[in-house]
# Entry
Amino acid sequence: MRLSDFCFILAVPIRIAILQYIKDNGSVTIRDISGALFGAPTNIVPVRRHLQVLYSAGLCQRIKIGRELYYAPVSQPEAVTFAIQQLQKLFEMSTEAL
# Structure
């Protein structure tokens, strides 16, 4: 994943809100997130789409228990580690240019 991809993913405010909700509440279902953020646990289509993006980027994990699918935080996502490394490189390059 490129740094620009990571920034693009987190440029959508609802994705940050979803990640924060998962971090604060542990393992949650799509209905839990939809109910908390949109006030309607049946409005799961936009939440599902954003969760797929976050999951594909490695920013959350999926846990299937029975028929229910839960989303949970990851301790140190590879995408976050990568983004931090890239930002450090950019910072070093910018300070060398001065």
